[in-house]
Amino acid sequence: MLHFAGGSNPRTPRASRALSRKGTRRIAALVAVPLLAVSVAACSDDDGSDSKPPSVSGSWGKKPKIDKGAGDPPSDLKTQVLKSGDGQKVRKGDAVSAHYVGQLWNGKEFDSSWKRKAPATFQIGTGKVIKGWDEALVGKKIGSRVEIVAPPNKGYGKKGQPPTIPGNSTLVFVVDLEKIAPNKIDGKPVDKPQNSQLPKVSTKVDKDKAPSIEMPKGKDEAPDELISETVVKGDGKKSVDEKSTILTHFTAKAWKGGKQLDDTWAQGGAPQEIPVAQIPGWGKGLKGAKAGSRVVVSVPQSEFPKEQRKQFKDGVVFSVDILEVK
C-alpha cells in the first residue's frame, strides 16, 4: 500500500488488502475500503438458535451503541430493521453509501465508518462484500438502520481477518443506509482529438470496468509539467476545487511500461469518496471539472512528496471519473 504525505490520513493496511482481490497496489490510503470487502467460504458455528441479536441504542445517523452478544451466537444469518427508511429499495448491483460499525459477538469493535468521519460506498448483491451484507441489505430501503448478525460462513470463515477478526468469528454490524450512489458518469465525449502528450483514454463508459489507457509509444516518463484534459464532459451543477471531495472511480498507471498501480473498478466494484487534496496532482488537474466528467491527469515526479519521488520517478497517469462533487 502506498501512503502520501501532506494531508493524508493513512488507514490500516489490512483494510486495503481485504479489498484487493487481484493484489493491485493502492495509490492512496484513503481509498482503502474497510474490512467487509472480501467474502470467504467457511464452516458455520454450532447451533445458537436460542440466542438473540445484541441490543442497539442511539439514533439513525449517529454511531450506535451495541451490546455484546449473550449466549451462543446464531448459526444462521440474522437481520433486523431497527428503523425503517422511506427511500428506494437497494437492488443487486447498487452502489450504496452507508455509515456502519462492526464488532465481534463478544462486543469488541473492529471497524467503524464513524471513526473515519465518512460513509463507505459498496456494491451490494454481487459478491463484492461479505455474504452477510449481500444477503441482508438487498431489498432494504434507504434511510433504514439495519442490524446484521453474520455467522462465519457469511463473513470471514475459518481464517478470519487477523489480527482483529479471529477465525470462525460471528460478526455484528449496524448499518445506516444513506443513499444509492451513481455508479457511472453520464457526460458526453469531447468532440476533439485528445492531447498527444497524454496517453489515449477511452471515452466508453462501463460501470463494471475501467476505461482502457493506451500509453504513447516511445515515451517512458510524464511531461515535466502537470497536464490534464477532460475527455468526457459532464454538466453537474458543482465544479471541483482544491477543497472538494469527490465520489469517483479511477484507474492509474505508471508512465514507464504502463504498469497498473490502482483500479477502483477491480477493487470492490463501488466508487469511493476522496478529497482531491489526498492524491498528488488531483487538486490542480481536476479543478473546474464537473460531475459526470472523465479527466486524464498526468502527474510528474515533482508533484509527489519527496519521500516518494524515487518510487514515482517516471510519473503517473490517472483517468478519473467524477460521479459527484461535494
Automatic annotation (TrEMBL):
PROSITE patterns documented for this protein: FKBP_PPIASE
Biased composition (Basic and acidic residues): 203-221
Region (Disordered): 1-21, 43-93, 184-238
Record EC number: 5.2.1.8
UniProt keyword terms in alphabetical order: Isomerase, Rotamase
Reaction catalyzed: [protein]-peptidylproline (omega=180) = [protein]-peptidylproline (omega=0)
Single Gene Ontology MF annotation: peptidyl-prolyl cis-trans isomerase activity
PPIase FKBP-type domain location: 93-181
Family designation: Belongs to the FKBP-type PPIase family.
Identification of the protein by name: peptidylprolyl isomerase
Gene source species: Streptomyces reniochalinae
